[in-house]
Amino acid sequence: MLKRFGNYLRKKLLLVLIIGFFIGIAITIYTHKAIEATSTPESCEMCHIHPHVFDSWKLSVHHENRIGMHVGCVDCHLPPKGHGYLKEKIKASARDAYGYFFKDSAEFNWEAKSTLEQAQHFVFKESCIHCHSNLFPLTLTTEGQEAHLYYSQNEDELRCINCHLNVGHYDPNAIHAKNIAFGNAGDETKEKYTTAAVVSAHNDFTETIPGTTIAFNMKAIPGGSFSIGSPETEQERKADEGPQKTVNISPFFMAEIEVSWDEFLAFYSATAAEGRTTDTEGTRTQRDVDAISGPTPPYGQPDQNWGLGNRPAITMSFHAAETYCKWLSQVTGKTYRLATEAEWEYAARGKTTTPFFFDGKPKDFKEKNFIGKLFGQDSEIINNYIVYEKNSGLKTAEPVTVESNPFGLKNMLGNVAEYCSDWYAEDAYSKLPDGISNPKGPASGKEHVVRGGHFKSPVGEVRSAARDYSRTKEWMKTDPQMPKSIWWLSDCNTVGFRVVCEFNEKTGK
């Protein structure tokens, strides 16, 4: 009896195992089919309700190419199988489903999502290498070979999309080469200035650049004393902002706005490329002893396709900013230069001693709960004066969007950060004698001071005392040219500069 019952159980168990085996095979087959079915561009399009992405994909070299191969969404936006494909697919599906059901796609900043900063979270380097296993094909140009050699030597720091951001989604404005035509367009219908502004006293004036149609406002900054840096009790304070020291500043002039593209391109068109230089009348001449040689053509589009005109000029190196000042001094007959760090902070504060030159502390402008919104500082006040991460749309803005500080200067605390002439040192203030006049910073260093915050900065980094510095190697790591440009930055679009003019014998002192 027991033997017969044992045989019965074994037969039942064998039947269950056989049924389970076939069910497992069926689940595996249909799971694979489900994964494949939900990995097509058509399935992606069901949730991603932004047709411009699919339109740009169909125009790209990943869809239309010489070999007739179509690269689909998951080929770039998921890693290859064996590299965490299923895990990333589950994460992406959950994220996309949440966005589809609980977010309004009309509020998405598609332009910002197309930037390298955003794209690197959704494009996998392993996927690029999976298809492009040979980085040195016979058809590769010499420039391409140099760029790929540099990549192979710095694989831990670089991604393929650092240089090839638009291969998956065609952008008609993207330029992946030397931009020879950059800065050529101009308004030839406007009358050009023949002389620079004549300044005979320490008053506001409008500078006019001879030989160009460009004019810009300069503000007379009165001399005075202030405490450089921030008190230890200031919110968001960093260690390099102290100790506070009393500094005396002599009168000077400072530009109302950051150097605009219109202003920079006047310099570029007069001095750039092919050995063109500029004489003191603002006309092009052959190279001579005192002539200024300007930037070589940039690689790509320096303005990021956000627009030129009155927007701040960006992506130029410290060397380019200094050379611009030398050229401006030459063509106007005045002494233009970058501000010292002390001059910059004195002008930014406009005689105030608080974190900003308007009412409020950093915590007042951070995300608030319901009670904070009812009884806290009106967070909209910061939007009147500063272009930063919360209101910029992650790109630069024209100066008309903000109001001036007490000295009549715009965008001192945002939009783009600004080069200063000082070498950076974390302990620079500790070495300043209290009561010093017109300090110029350390005698030497590796990087220069950058002040003012920018359109990507959180609120703590747009305070009057906040300090930063240039990062030469980091800001140039994906320049594909050999040697790298001394004029243009390949990896930084948040820094520009503002000019000051000395109040001296040339300006009525």
Protein architecture, described:
The chain has helices at residues 2-37, 41-47, 51-58, 73-77, 85-102, 110-113, 116-119, 125-131, 142-153, 261-271, 318-332, 341-349, 370-375, and strands spanning 205-208, 215-221, 224-228, 245-249, 252-255, 277-278, 284-285, 336-338, 417-423, 436-437, 448-451, 467-469, 495-496, 499-502. With 509 residues, it is of the alpha+beta class. The chain has 2 domains: 53-174, no CATH class; 205-507, paralog of FGE (formylglycine-generating enzyme) (Alpha-Beta Complex). It is elongated, with a radius of gyration of 29 Å. The protein starts with a helix and ends in a 7-residue tail after the last strand. Mean pLDDT is 87; it is low at 274-289 and 369-376.
List the helices and strands and how they pair.
Layout: H1 2-37, H2 41-47, H3 51-58, H4 73-77, H5 85-102, H6 110-113, H7 116-119, H8 125-131, H9 142-153, E1 205-208, E2 215-221, E3 224-228, E4 245-249, E5 252-255, H10 261-271, E6 277-278, E7 284-285, H11 318-332, E8 336-338, H12 341-349, H13 370-375, E9 417-423, E10 436-437, E11 448-451, E12 467-469, E13 495-496, E14 499-502
Parallel strand pairs: 4-10, 9-13
Antiparallel strand pairs: 1-2, 2-5, 3-4, 5-14, 6-7, 8-14, 9-11, 11-12
Q: Supply the number of helical segments.
A: 13
Helices and strands, in order, run as HHHHHHHHHEEEEEHEEHEHHEEEEEE
Q: N- to C-terminal separation?
A: 120 Å
CATH superfamily of the largest domain: paralog of FGE (formylglycine-generating enzyme)
Question: What kind of sheet is the major sheet?
Answer: 5 strands, antiparallel
Structural domains: how many: 2
Flag low-confidence runs.
274-289, 369-376
Please tell me the CATH architecture of the largest domain by its name. Alpha-Beta Complex
- Widest β-sheet, arrangement of strands: 1-2-5-14-8
Radius of gyration, in Å, reads 29 Å
